[in-house]
Design goal:
The chain is 42% helix and 18% strand. The chain has 10 helices and 8 strands. The strands form 2 sheets. Strands 1-2-7-4-5-8 form a 6-stranded antiparallel beta sheet. A two-stranded antiparallel sheet has the order 3-6. Helix 2 packs antiparallel against helix 3, helix 7 runs antiparallel to helix 8 and helix 7 crosses helix 9. The chain is globular, with a radius of gyration of 18 Å.
Length: 236
C-alpha cells in the first residue's frame, strides 16, 4: 500500500516552504512511482534507512522505486531553495543528492534529531526548522519572475520588466529555479494543466485554460515532460 499525505507548512516557514508531505509504503517493494516536473525542490528523509536527500527540479519524469517505510519531506516554494541549500538550483536539476553533500557540518545533528521523533508531524517540524535556520535572503527578483513566467511573458519582456539583459535573466533563472525562463514557463504551464485535470476539468478545457494552442499541443507537452499520455498520467 502507498499512502501520500500533504499539508501546509508550519506557520513560521510559509515564506520558504509551500508544504510538508509524507509517503508511507507497506508490504513489498512497490512499482515505480512517476515523479513529474513541478519546479519544486524537496528535502526528504526516509525514516527506516535514515537517508536524507534533496530532490532537485526535474525537466522530465523521474521513476522512483518506493522502498517500504516512511518518507517525510519539506517542499520549498519555487525559487526559494538556493538560499537554504547553498547551491544554485541548476546544480540539483534532474538529480537526487545526499543532503550531506550540501550541509556537511549540520546533517549528522539533523539526522539524530529526526531519528528521535515519533510522529510524522514532529519530523516535518524538524525539517522545516532546519531549512529555516539555514535560509539566507532570496533573490529579490524571484516573485516577479514567477509571475511573469506563469503568465507566459516573452523572455525579452521578462528581462525588461526586472531590469536585466536576457543573458542575466537566464543566469538568475538557472540559479533560482534550475531552469532557463522558457523551460520554467513550460513546467509551470504543465503543472497548472495537471492540477486542472486532476480537479476534473476536461482535457480540451484544460488546454484552453492552461494556455496551450489546443489539446494536441497539451498532449505533446505532457508526453515530453512526463513520458506518458495525459490519460495515463492521470490514471497513475
Amino acid at each position: 500500500m502507498d499512502r501520500y499525505e500533504e499539508r501546509p507548512a508550519p506557520a513560521a516557514t510559509r515564506g520558504l516552504l509551500t508544504c510538508v508531505w509524507s509517503r508511507r509504503v507497506t508490504g513489498d517493494l512497490t512499482d515505480e512511482a512517476r515523479i513529474v516536473p513541478d519546479a519544486c525542490v524537496d528535502v526528504i528523509w526516509h525514516r527506516e534507512s535514515g537517508r536524507l536527500f534533496v530532490a532537485g527540479p526535474d525537466t522530465r519524469a523521474h521513476l522512483s522505486s518506493l522502498a517500504p517505510g516512511e518518507l517525510v519531506a519539506a517542499r520549498f516554494r519555487t525559487g526559494r531553495s538556493t538560499a537554504s541549500l547553498g547551491v544554485p538550483a541548476d546544480a540539483l536539476r534532474d538529480s537526487r543528492v545526499d543532503l550531506a553533500e550540501l550541509w556537511p557540518d549540520r546533517v549528522d545533528r539533523l539526522a539524530d534529531t529526526l531519528a528521535a521523533t515519533d510522529t510524522t508531524a514532529a519530523a516535518q517540524g524538524v525539517l522545516g526548522s532546519a531549512v529555516l535556520a539555514a535560509a539566507a535572503d532570496p533573490d529579490p527578483a524571484v516573485p516577479a519572475l514567477l509571475t511573469l513566467a506563469g503568465g507566459g511573458a516573452r523572455v525579452g519582456d521578462m528581462a525588461d520588466a526586472v531590469g536585466l539583459t536576457e543573458r542575466q535573466l537566464h543566469r538568475r533563472c538557472l540559479a533560482a529555479f534550475g531552469y532557463g525562463a522558457k523551460m520554467l514557463q513550460r513546467v509551470l504551464r504543465f503543472d497548472r494543466a495537471m492540477r486542472l485535470a486532476r480537479g476534473g476539468t476536461e482535457l480540451a478545457d484544460v488546454a484552453y485554460w492552461a494556455g496551450y494552442a489546443d489539446q494536441a499541443h497539451l498532449s505533446r507537452e505532457v508526453r515530453a515532460l512526463a513520458g506518458v499520455s495525459p490519460t495515463k498520467l492521470l490514471n497513475t
